[in-house]
Amino acid sequence: MGWGASKAAIIGAIAGILVAAAIAMTTTGADAKATYESPYGYERTWNAALRLVRVDNGWKISEKDQANGYLLFEYRPPSTTKTTSGSLELVRGRDGDSAVSVLVQLPQMPRYHEQVILDALASKMRREYGDAPEHKRPPSDPPQEPPRDPAPDAGDDNKD
Q1: Which domains does the chain have, with CATH numbers?
Q2: Residues 74-112: pLDDT tens digits?
Q3: Are 93 and 133 in contact (CB under 8 A)?
Q4: Are 80 and 72 in contact (CB under 8 A)?
């Protein structure tokens, strides 16, 4: 192999490294998050989430605030003893809606870890509380009667 061929190989390797570095710099980090819409209401969802994290999985809770709806915990994946920080957030539905959005974030882990936690929460709630309650819509205005057809005209009163 001559000098020209080795030059081309070196330039090709450098170009490959530069392309890989450019791709790595432009992609986002592990900013994954997964959500679940819980139809069980805020109180039930909060209690089940707290028990799932602390009792069922034995993860240490570093901070919790029920009024604002968040848990910070130390997540330990099943395959290792190393822990990483995680958060679980509950967001109340609008306008008295009983649905609650549950958001799990494990920034240092692949997204499927977050989804596994949410699936476990949904399963736990079905086991403990039964089937999800039906979504209740706020009552709308009472139905109004359709307009009646006017009475038929009896004819002209001024007829001779």
Answers
A1: 28-129 (3.30.530.50)
A2: 999 988 889 999 999 999 987 666 789 999 999 999 999
A3: no
A4: no
